[in-house]
Design brief:
The complex is a heterodimer of chains A (about 300) and B (about 160). Chain A is an alpha+beta fold. Helix content of chain A is about 35%, strand content about 20%. In chain A, the strands form two sheets. Chain A has a six-stranded antiparallel barrel with strand order 1-2-5-4-3-12. In chain A, strand 6 and strand 7 form a beta hairpin. Chain B is mainly alpha-helical and about 160 residues long. Chain B starts with 6 loop residues before the first helix and ends with a helix. Classes of the chains: A alpha+beta (about 300), B mainly alpha (about 160).
Chain lengths: ~300, ~160
């Protein structure tokens, strides 16, 4: 710093605790806070209070990219909008045609499930949330969302995009929330091979294009291109959503397990809009949990399919 | 100290906080210098009696909440870095610009070490050369930061 000021020097005789003492005290306080926050999550009130104060910064930082998107919508050419509109209409028609079949299949599935006396699956309700363009820690795959407590978001809630599972909510603040991506090195999710129902666990590797499947023996029936869906075990994710496609199978005779990698089907680093899922089609998280339990206990065996796409 | 004002200091810290989470392309993200820590270091160097450990600690805590990491991680790292600056501020001030940048670089390296250490204690962290990227970035960013804030201070007559 330039010689702009020379008067605000350290005093010759200090009052109060010395610099070193204060540093040690603050460092110890930080360590205590870390221990409490990391191990028990005791400091949620402190974090909540500060997060409300910090939320405007996130929104502010998100502003350039949000306004860029807005401007692109405003000033894009009529021709392009028309073309896009036409494409979307065709796409929508195609989807609807498939949905007609789906309704029939769902009814049939529910009937078969009733015959087997297994619990009915419930339709899930979803809501769109936006990922704020905020870079959190580069070594953790976390994202900030613009929906929080006021929208009924709860910790552990699953996130989807158009192609598959993205991650789950880890922390809910009054205004926004934070989520972990399935590619975070500390994340693991139960998956199932759609072709033969093989169940395993997919771990994040810190790379948005790869998931690790470390617990598959060499003799297992798995091929490149196989689709993995969420198995619903562990109660964290709703069952039956696509997660990843197997990209690499390397059988290693000397090792107990094969090396298998998969690529997430969701565009983990490219989406801006994502879907928050409430299982059981209820609006309130509490009600959703109850509905889910009912379904699991199979208490109502004649429960019809709660068909109906999410609103 | 007639020329002193609090508002510009707070504003500069807010700007630094925003820069710390501004989205960057994935290849550039690891080269992001620790803006908030460097800004706090600047003010500690400029007004060592006014902006010291307390401010750095609190700013670090706010950054922890903003980044959604472990509460106390940046608070600890920034406290230690600011302590180093306060400890050597008389010498740091009279250094020529390049020497000051190198010294600040060493302090930022300490800061990054504490960040990495807490990362390792609380979860997954692997040592790679990328961990040193912010330190090199700080070497380049420090003279720029000093020039910008010095410029504003001259214009605002925050001389002493």
């Amino acid at each position: 710093v330039s010689p702009l000021n020379q008067t605000d020097n350290k005093p010759l005789f200090e009052r109060g605790p010395s610099l070193g003492t204060r540093m040690v005290l603050l460092a110890m306080l930080s360590v205590a806070i870390m221990a409490m926050d990391h191990q028990q999550g005791h400091l949620e009130t402190v974090r909540r209070a500060l997060s409300v104060a910090v939320y405007p910064i996130r929104v502010l930082v998100d502003l350039p990219s949000a306004s860029f998107g807005w401007a692109r919508e405003q000033f894009s050419q009529r021709q392009r909008l028309l073309a896009e509109n036409r494409e979307l209409r065709i796409e929508s028609l195609r989807q609807r045609a498939r949905l007609q079949q789906l309704a029939a299949l769902e009814a049939e599935n529910a009937r078969l499930r009733a015959l087997m006396e297994s619990p009915a699956r419930l339709a899930n309700r979803v809501q769109v949330a936006e990922i704020l363009a905020v870079d959190l820690d580069p070594y953790r795959h976390r994202i900030a969302l613009n929906r929080g407590e006021q929208a009924g978001v709860y910790p552990g809630q699953a996130l989807l995009d158009a192609d598959g599972i993205v991650g789950q909510v880890v922390r809910v603040n009054p205004l926004g929330s934070e989520a972990i991506l399935i590619s975070d090195p500390s994340h693991a999710m139960p998956v199932e091979l759609i072709r033969n129902g093989l169940r395993t666990v997919a771990l994040g590797m810190g790379d948005v294009t790869r998931l690790d499947l470390p617990f598959l023996p060499n003799s297992v029936d798995i091929r490149v291109g196989d689709l993995l869906i969420s198995s619903g075990l562990g109660d964290a994710f709703p069952a039956g959503y696509p997660v990843a496609r197997v990209t690499r199978v390397e059988r290693r005779p000397g090792e107990p397990f094969a090396r298998v990698e998969a690529e997430p089907t969701a565009a983990l680093n490219r989406t801006r809009e994502i879907l928050l899922v409430w299982e059981g089609g209820e609006a309130l998280p509490d009600a959703a949990v109850e509905a889910g339990e009912d379904a699991e206990n199979g208490s109502e065996s004649d429960m019809g399919p709660a068909v109906g796409p999410a609103e | 100290m007639g020329g002193h004002r609090t508002l510009p200091v707070l504003l500069s810290l807010l700007v630094a906080l925003s820069l710390d989470v501004t989205p960057l392309p994935a290849d550039l993200a690891m080269w992001r210098p620790p803006w908030l820590a460097m800004t706090a270091l600047y003010w500690a160097l400029a007004y060592p009696r006014r902006y010291g450990l307390g401010l750095a600690w609190f700013a670090g805590l706010v950054l922890d909440v903003l980044k959604g990491g472990v509460l106390g991680q940046h608070a600890l790292a920034m406290t230690v870095a600011t302590w180093l600056v306060l400890r050597f501020h008389l010498r740091l001030r009279v250094f020529p610009a390049w020497q000051q940048a190198v010294a600040v670089c060493a302090i930022v390296a300490t800061h990054q070490f504490f960040i990495f250490w807490v990362d390792g204690m609380t979860g997954s962290a692997e040592l790679s050369w990328q961990r040193g990227a912010p330190v090199l970035a700080a070497l380049i960013a420090w003279p720029v930061l000093v020039a910008i804030i010095d410029g504003f201070r001259l214009r605002l007559r925050m001389l002493a």
